[in-house]
Amino acid sequence: MSPDPRIAYLGPAGTNSETVAHCFGQRWSQPAWLATSTIAQVLHHVAQGHADYGVVPVENSLEGSVTTTLDLLWQLPDLYIQQGLILPILHSLVSHCAEINQIQRVYSHPQALGQCQYWLEEHLPHIPWLPTRSTSEALQYVQPEAGSAAIASPRAAQLWHLPILAQDLAADNFTRFWVVGGIFQREGTHTSLAFSVPANRPGALVRVLAHFAQAEINLSRIESRPTRRSLGEYFFCVDLEGAQTQPRIGAALDGLGRETSRLCNYGSYTITPVEIPVDCPN
């Protein structure tokens, strides 16, 4: 482990990814921070050796999986999960408008727009939603465009010196992040895998899942994703409760190797909560 690691995350300043990255980086005295423009850039930085760790969102309690993260981990070699972190998400409506009914458009990341869709449909039903690459990037449209608003974190609004018009747009909102690096780990509370099964083989998925059922291993998540090679071809993402050092999980993984056409083992790791607000350097 580098004494002063480089940690990549989705920027700019004020994103939830930055909050989680700084929480993870508190264990070192002087980590280097690499703010990127997209989630894909975070993972490519780690894969290409430009960063030691990358912090990426993987699942939201309201909107589900972050498919960019799942798809790129399947495509990029030698990336492993180092830690899971769960962050409570607070969304605010940021605008110079004096009243909500003066807003003509709302900017934010697609995940944030989806998480706040019920609030937006109730309070701004006829206003266009315009996607940006991050919630903090959305704030750059608030200052120059009359009638514009952005959905971002309260901390981002503070950093950008912008007023908050409404708060808590989506209740019970949590996002799970993965810290990704190049070190394979066998210890932890959870294990994550991705696999594909032989084509045109009836019962192929059932045979894979049977290894977990027979060993009484709980799956906390299973989901299919297109391989992007041909229509109807999928790979499967699975989270297990437990570590690979446990004999029953190790034996199940050995069995998976015989049933799958490709198996990606992202390693074992521990999931911990992140408390907010988190003091992050600017």
UniProtKB/TrEMBL annotation:
Reaction it catalyzes: prephenate + H(+) = 3-phenylpyruvate + CO2 + H2O
Class in the EC hierarchy, top level: lyase
Gene Ontology cellular component terms for the protein in this record: cytoplasm
GO terms for MF: prephenate dehydratase activity
EC number(s) per entry: 4.2.1.51
Listed GO biological process terms: L-phenylalanine biosynthetic process
Keywords: Amino-acid biosynthesis, Aromatic amino acid biosynthesis, Lyase, Phenylalanine biosynthesis
Domain Prephenate dehydratase: 6-182
The protein's annotated pathway: Amino-acid biosynthesis; L-phenylalanine biosynthesis; phenylpyruvate from prephenate: step 1/1
Domain ACT residue range list: 193-274
Residues the UniProt record annotates as site (Essential for prephenate dehydratase activity): T175
Protein name according to UniProt: Prephenate dehydratase
